[in-house]
Amino acid sequence: MNNMVMNFLVTEGFSEVAEKFRNESGTDSDMDLATIADRMAVKDAVQRGNIEDAIKKVNDSNLEILDTNPQLFFHLQQQRLIELIRDGKIEEALEFAREELAPRGEENPSFLGELERTVALLAFKDAYKCPIGELLGTSQRLKTASEVNAAILTSQGHEKDPKLPSLLKMLIWSQNQLDEKAAYPRINDLSKGTLEDPVV
């Protein structure tokens, strides 16, 4: 269980908590805790909307990440376009879309739909209230930040997703399957993890 907790902490970037957990539990991580800070600096830059800084930090850590992952680079550039639109820099956004994103769409037609959807934000007077306004929301930044975090983890030879959430989902699924077949001690509150006697 301690290994699962440590895996979650380092994958999600909680370096201080991981360090304290390691000291208290004696559980080591297969990841150098010092590298977490660099990864979290990239993730933080994306979440703040500073995409140019995020790209620079990714390239400083490993030039091959963006070179070998065109979809990730496109999503970072797409997020940069979104940030220009958010800041009301319409002329700059149009020029950036034409010079940086359009050629990528021509190289890879699977990007065209996302590019068209993003550029469509420019057609609305109040882009926040338009049907695709969610692109300007925090959830879009978080999605891009998670994708970058996963790519960095993969480049370092680590799993991109923590094991603990998957294990909890599997536990819930298993219990749901068992509910139809048998009475058994069940975990109803995952935060406490206590077994409750079956209702007869």
Automatic annotation (TrEMBL):
Q: What InterPro entries would the database entry show?
A: CRA_dom, CTLH/CRA, CTLH_C, LisH, Ubq-SigPath_Reg
Q: Which PROSITE patterns match?
A: CTLH, LISH
Domain CTLH, chain residue ranges per copy: 35-92
Q: Which Pfam families match?
A: CTLH, LisH
User: PANTHER family of this UniProt entry?
Assistant: RAN BINDING PROTEIN 9-RELATED
Its protein name is CTLH domain-containing protein
Q: Mind giving the lineage of the organism this protein is from?
A: Eukaryota, Viridiplantae, Streptophyta, Embryophyta, Tracheophyta
